[in-house]
Structure formats: structure tokens, C-alpha cells
Amino acid sequence: MKRFSFLAPLTLTALSLLPFGTVSAHDLESDSIKTEAAPKQRRLSIGGYGEVAMTRNFYSDSYLRYTTPEKYRNQQHGRFDIPHMVIFLGYDFGKGWSMGSEIEFEHGGTESAIEIEEEEAGEYEKEIERGGEVALEQFWLQKKFMPQLAVRVGMLVVPIGQTNAHHMPTEFFGVYRPEGENTIMPCTWHEVGISVRGQAGDWAYEAMFLPGLDSDRFGSKGWIHDGAGSPYEFKIANRYAGAFRVDNTTVPGLRLSLSGYIGDSFRNTLYPTDNEKNRGIHGTVTIGSFDFSYASTAFLARGHFDYGHLSDSKRISDFNISMSKNSVSKRQKIGQAALSTGVEAGYNFFSLVPSLRNSQRLYLFGRYDYYDAMFRMENDIKTDWTGRQRVAAGINYYPIRDIVIKAEYSIGILKKQYNNEPSLSLGVAYSGWFRY
User: According to DSSP H, which parts of 161-301 are helical?
Assistant: First the structure.
């Protein structure tokens, strides 16, 4: 049996180990790991995951590389990064009540300082020393009534697509999260809301009620990716949305999942929208997704297909482009439809070595992605560089259960008028318990 994070969206596998809804059902292992019997339940749970990565990109990082691609051939650049470092804290209060939280530091967090500039008449100046984000990605209270029914309220992961549901670094082969889903959708997508969830036999489900996205923050490259954020100290909820996920594990080693989302996004903002020209604009976002994973001792495969639609995309594009330069809007054209699909497969060569089979793993893997944030545009106005294929191959080495060392070569394949984007990446990551 496989074990997963209790903070990740509900999976039947996690429920097969421990009573549903308890904090100690949280586990951070990947799809492929075979584990011992469930540990004794504890009230306090502390865990987390983290990633360190280095990449050499054999293409330009100029923001003009798609506008005048001929000027940026044969360029390259490098990056070091800490994509994510996360601390999980959970507590089981008893009688079905539990709490979970996730604090995430992205790209090293943020550092800023206030200085007095001696050469500028003693003025105070704010200095940004490091980019990054610190976010409370999850905080919820849950009441479990029975295995088939629990209610969770708070900051929740929206389990749409494979990456949102399974985003620990041991749950994908690449050094970075799968590029397609990470581009067109919020990732990790989290919102304040309420969910109902449960498990019956080989089926698990989750249904959520949450605030709608903000169409002001949609963009050309990322479609709705930034629409879940808020620049304010609260999330505007003039419009609402619903989401669901269903998992099935009838076949041993195989998980099949369906997920979906629907909600209006226009007028979910503080920006004035109440005039005659904007009458009838809803900006309804609809997403359907299928994903799967299959794991055996030697073989591991995962895949997903996501399709999203935005109504009134041209009118929203025109509205956003007309907004003030001081607004939060990207002021860009937005796709009527977006698509992302990907599949990866790996073989564990240490499964052939009896002395290593139960202690270490070495996967050779390959991955293919296709995604396009402007898969379809109203009036056939299209931006060609947003559609691309990506092919990757590499290794994942697990010297111990909770540590993975990754190496990957990939190439982003764009249409012929643009430059392809090859890169070489190395990374090391962990996901596990500090104490439970």
C-alpha cells in the first residue's frame, strides 16, 4: 500500500492506512514506495518537504525572445533556486476533530530592509535583498463523522489536476513540477473554502465550495494561473465556484482520477465594473481533468490531461488591456481555451539487484508534455509561442526512502519561427516526517 500526505487532497491510498480525517494519516511518500504497517496514531504531526535545484538554460532569458527571436539565438543563462521549502503542522484533538497547516517558503522566501540613504538627504529607502514568497498554503479544521463523510473548513488545496493533488517532490520525476499544469493553472492552488470528503471501498471523493477566480489577473502565458491570488489582505468573493475530485483504486497499483472546476471570474475585483459596456460578462472558468498513476516494484508511470474554457475571453481581454498601468492586471490577451497534457514513465533498475531492492531505488525516466495557454482564441487571434512541446529524460536516485537526487535534460520545442529551449537541471529534495 502507498502512503500520501494528509494535507494533500484526499486519496483512497492514504485512507487505506489510517482512519480518514486524522492528522496522522498525513504521509509524504511518493506513489512508488512500498511501506510497512501504519504507525501508531499520534496527536501532533510535524513534517515537510523541500527542494534545491540548479539549471543551465541553453536559451535567452530576455523578455523579448519571442518578439524578436532572431536576435536571441545561441544564448544561455544559469539559475540556482530553492523552489519550495514547506513545514507541515497538524494536531488531532480527538472525537473526530483535527487541524492541519502548511507554511511554504518559495524561492528562499523574502528579505527586505529599510535603510537611511546618506547621499539622498537622509531619506528612508526600502531595499529588497531577495525575491521569493512566504505563504500559508493550508490551514484547516476538520470534523470526521465516518469514513464516508468529513467536513473541512479553511485554506484548502483545490485538487484540480495531477500536480495540485500530488505536488511533493517525490511525486514527480522532473527537477521541477510538471511544466504544463504549473503554467496554465494555479499551483499549488489553494483557497479559503469548505469541502466535503470521504471514502467508500475503492472510491474516494472531495467536493469544494470556494471563491471564484479574479479575471483581472489572467494572462497570455499563464491563462488563469495568477487568478487565485489576491493583492489585498482578504480574498474577494463577489463570485463563487465549485470543485470536485474522485479517485478510484480498484486495480492494485493503479489510481484513476477525475476532477473539475466551474465558477465565474469577472467582477471578482475591487476595480469598477458596473457600467453598460460590461453588462453580461461572466468570465465563467470551466476545467475538466483526468490523471492517473501506476506503480509496481520496478515500473512507475503517471499522466494527466487538462482542458479549460473561459467564456467572454475577448471582452475580458479588452477590459484588462484598458485598465490602468497601476492596476494588478497583466493587461494582456487571454485564451478562450487552454490545454495541458503530459505523461512520464520510469524503470527502477535497482529492482534487479536483490541487495538494493528494499533499500534504494534508481529510476531512469522519460517525460513528454504539450501545453498551450492560448489553445483557442476568440476571433482566431492567436499567440503562437504559448503552444509548445517538452521532452525530458533523466534519473531519480533514492539513497534512502525520503531523499531523492534528480538529474534531467529537457528541451522545449516551439514553432519553427522561435528558438527551442533546452536545459540541464540537477536537484535534491526530501519529503518526510520530522516527528509523528
Answer: 161-165, 179-184
pTM: 0.85
Name the DSSP letter for residue 14. H
What's the grid cell of residue 337?
A: 481555451
pLDDT digits (tens, 9 = 90+) for 35-46: 333 445 678 999
CB atoms within 10 A of CB 149: 15
Mean pLDDT of 358-374: 96
CA distances from 368 to 42, 52, 177, 297, 345 (A): 41, 23, 13, 23, 9
Rounded distance between C-alpha atoms, residue 288 and residue 270, angstroms: 29
Q: What is the rounded distance in angstroms from the CA atom of residue 249 to the CA atom of residue 200?
A: 11
179 backbone dihedrals φ, ψ, rounded to 5°: -70, -35
Distance of CA 182 to the CA centre of its chain: 6
Q: How far apart are CA 68 and CA 299, in angstroms?
A: 43
Is residue 339 classed as helix, strand or coil in its secondary structure? Answer: strand
pLDDT band at 111 (very low <50, low <70, confident <90, very high): low
pLDDT at residue 40, rounded to an integer: 55
Residue of 303, 279, 277 lying closest to 290 (CA atoms): 303
Count Cα neighbours of 435 within 13 Å in the Cβ-side half-sphere: 6
What 3-state class would DSSP assign to 12?
A: helix
Give the distance from CA 378 to its chain's centroid.
27
- 208 grid coordinates: 469544494
Judged on CB neighbours under 10 Å (0-12, 13-18, 19+), 323 is: middle
Report DSSP letters for 206-235, one per residue.
Answer: EEEEEEPP-GGG-BTTTBTGGGG--SSSS-
Q: Backbone phi, then psi, for 30, in 5-degree steps?
A: -80, 175
Q: Is the confidence at residue 64, as pLDDT, over 70? A: yes
Percent of the chain with pLDDT over 90: 66
Residue 17: what pLDDT? 27
Cα separation, 398 vs 404, in Å, equals: 5
pLDDT digits 0-9 by tens, 7-44? 333 333 332 322 223 333 333 333 433 333 344 567 89
